[in-house]
Amino acid sequence: MKITIVGTGYVGLVTGTCFAEVGIDVTCIDIDEKKIENLKKGIIPIYEPGLEPMVNRNVEKGRLHFSTSLASSLDGTDVIFSAVGTPPDEDGSADLKYVLDVARSVGKNMNDYVLIVTKSTVPVGTAAKVKTAIQEELDKRGVKIPFDVASNPEFLKEGAAVEDFLKPDRIVVGIESKKAENILNRLYKPFTLNGHPVIFMDVPSAEMTKYAANSMLATKISFINDIANLCEIVGANVNMVRKGIGSDSRIGKKFIYPGIGYGGSCFPKDVKALIKTADKNGYSLRILKSVEDVNEDQKSVLFNKLTKYFNGNLQGKTIAMWGLSFKPQTDDMREAPALVLIEKILAAGAKVKAYDPIAMEESHRRIGDVIEYCKDQYEALIDADAVLIVTEWPEFKFPNMNVIKKLLKNPVIFDGRNVYDPEELEEAGFDYYCIGIEHK
Length: 440
Known about the structure:
By secondary structure, this protein is α/β, with parallel strands linked by helices. It folds into 3 domains: 2-201, NAD(P)-binding Rossmann-like Domain (Rossmann fold, 3-Layer(aba) Sandwich); 211-297, NAD(P)-binding Rossmann-like Domain (Rossmann fold, 3-Layer(aba) Sandwich), CATH 3.40.50; 299-433, NAD(P)-binding Rossmann-like Domain (Rossmann fold), CATH 3.40.50. It is built from 16 helices and 14 strands. The strands form 3 sheets. Strands 3-2-1-4-5-6 form a 6-stranded parallel sheet, sandwiched between helices. Strands 11-10-9-12-13-14 form a 6-stranded parallel sheet. The protein has a two-stranded parallel ribbon with strand order 7-8. It starts with a strand and ends in a 7-residue tail after the last strand. The mean pLDDT is 94.
């Protein structure tokens, strides 16, 4: 079987590489010539554990190819996956420009039957637009070539995407024909041997499933953050509350860890897009609008604690930040709480010294030299008035507390991820502020 992946971003590159890993002939397409040349040389544009050696291995085996030409890769292709970006438009809705560009290019260049699968996260009704765009191009050419359109949303967690793809807990596919079902069943057979089936459904339901899943997870995060803020006010301990409710199988333990808000490429964008889809259809998703409001407020919680500690005056202070990416095991800083914190701290007249094991290059690309980047977590503490724990990287979980105390001007830690034990920190002589636990 031969497949083509259009788009070599996070989703496209992981998808193409993992299909190649199980022996499928894969060509990944991108209009960015420099990115394609780098990929041919083994230079990976994203950080994802395990991805780089897998890319290089499959290129060497001749199963994974990179090109800038979709037209040249169509001959003999059974399936085309569209994995291009769907950035938020100015009003929060998903911009389908690139998705429809791919559809028109397929219609202009296809010569035999092909199955076009939308892998990008797209609003309900996108597959119908893709189908129309392809057919319009075929009509312009005056040819009748059969094709199918399907929806196959991804459910990859950044930092564990390769494992998620190779061992999925579910594969959701929206189809309109038995032929498309048979092709995708055959394609995904190597990934379903662990007993998790492909869940086939109609196309609109598959498109909605991705948005609904991410919105549900975002809801759990904002819910526990709202509860955490109330816990601080009334003197409850959110860590105990989390254990109490997480033991209920109907709720579960995942995604109910308090923190400083969700970020990344999926949750913020998908929540906004689903809210916009509902608005366009005359319905208000009131819960999700509140989820979004809580999340935006939560990104400022550490800054508010910091400002209060210094009696409302951060002028001339130096603040250390441990972590920049929105979560561990990725360099992704899209919608990262760190960006909000940096902006607010700088606006208050303070300096920021930061360390992140992976994301400092990405941070520099986004915001330049407005902050100081440090070679390790301890260098960030030198002459700093306080430290903020922003991302829960493993190396931050068991630091040398004596060294921290010696390097900081004030023995104060603001923990946005509840990494440490409050009693231990207080016994060690620190002022310790975290999320959802009243400061004694």
